[in-house]
Amino acid sequence: MDKEIRILIAEDATIVREGLRLLVSSDPGNRIVAEAVDGYDAIRRARETNPDIIIMDLSMPRMNGMDAIREIKKLLPGIKILVLTVHKSHEFITAALEAGADGYVLKDASQAELMLAIRSVLKGGNFISPGITDMLINGYLGGNSGRPRTLVECLTHREREILKLIAEGYKNKSIGELLCISVRTVDKHRENIMQKLNIHNVPALTTFAIENGLVEKVKPARPQ
Asked: What does the buried/exposed string (b/e) look like for 134-144 if buried means 16 or more CB atoms within 10 Å of the residue's CB?
């Protein structure tokens, strides 16, 4: 009998998460051991359950999937991570793979493709949806590694974290508590973000974050 596959689903949209749970569980060899609604939750649940594989969305509140992948791979490098997302641009694909993702599947994939992806990465391989493989190859052949840096790439990792939280409606005090840094440090990062982007108000920062994929859509922040 094949070994049971223990799966963690990280997806903030409830209806998508529930549908994914039913779809994946239809294979008796799969068991959902945990679910997460954001990057912080995914890290916590991964540490608690140590799954074989995580199916990870990229656009989630508080901490996005990309940052969660980096942290989980640092803490638990043996866990396989399969990205399941709507993002099909070269930038998202390469960033996810560089962060440590073992596979990349689009949300319009079939059930058969998703199951194949799960088994492929668990066997130690990498899996990329066939529909985006050509795009990825063409991006590398086109020399994208030498392209000019975009404005969002000029921000540090911490600045991108803070910009995402600002766009989601969090105030400086709550941002400091989430990231375990002082309000003064948040203020300083906020000033640096505004200077680098030449944007000096929250609505414009929010628009920039949405346009650059840091947040998929603005959701109300948790009580502060």
From this structure: eebeebeeeee
CA angle centred on 56, ends 51 and 60, rounded to 5°: 130
Gap between the Cα atoms of 53 and 94, Å rounded: 20
Name residues whose C-beta falls within 8 Å of residue 191's C-beta, 6 or more positions apart in sequence: none
Residue 154 makes CB contacts below 8 A (sequence gap 6+) with 196
Query: pTM score, two decimals?
Result: 0.71
Question: What separation in angstroms does the CA of 110 have from each of 20, 26, 131?
Answer: 12, 14, 12
The two tokens of residue 155 are: 């921000």
- List per-residue pLDDT tens for the chain, 224 residues long: 468 999 999 999 999 999 999 999 999 999 999 999 999 999 999 999 999 999 999 888 888 898 899 999 999 999 999 999 988 777 788 888 888 999 999 988 889 999 999 999 999 988 988 877 666 666 554 555 544 456 777 788 888 889 989 998 999 999 999 888 999 999 999 998 988 888 888 988 888 888 787 876 555 444 44
